[in-house]
Amino acid sequence: MALKAFEKEKMEFVFRDGQVVILQEPTLLQLKSARAKSKDEIEQAKSLLIDMSMGEIDADFLESLPIGEFNRLAKVVTDFIGLDEKN
Fold first, then answer.
1. Contact 22, 53 (CB under 8 A)
2. What single DSSP character describes residue 86?
3. DSSP, residue by residue, 4-72
4. CA torsion angle for 71, 44, 29, 60 (degrees, to 10)?
5. Separation CA 34–CA 84 (nearest Å)
6. CA 59, 77, 42, 36: dihedral to nearest 10 degrees?
7. I need a labelling partner for 3 at 20 to 30 A (CA). Which of 20, 60, 61, 82 fits?
8. What is the pLDDT of residues 22-61, one digit of tens each?
9. Dihedral of CA 7/35/23/76: which sign?
10. Global confidence as pTM
C-alpha cells in the first residue's frame, strides 16, 4: 500500500502594510527546482516564495519590496529549509 502525501505546513505572513499571504511548506521538488535555476540564494528564495505562495507572490512584487520586508520573507524560507541568509 502506497503512503499518502503529507499535508503541507502553512503559515500566514503579514506584510507591514497589512497585506496577508499564506505560505505553504516547500517540497523537495520545489527546493531542487529553485537550486537548479540559480546558485544564488536570493534567487532561490525568490523562486521558493513564488511557489510557497501558490503564485500569489510574483517576481515583480518581490523585486519591488523594501529590503527589510524581503529579509522578513526570506526568514520564512530559512525557517522551512535552512538557507543561509548571509549569502
1. yes
2. T
3. PPPPPPEEEEE-TTS-EEEEEPPPHHHHHHHHHH-S-HHHHHHHHHHHHTTTSS-HHHHHHS-HHHHHH
4. 80
5. 15
6. -90
7. 82
8. 999 999 899 999 999 999 989 999 999 999 999 999 999 9
9. positive
10. 0.83
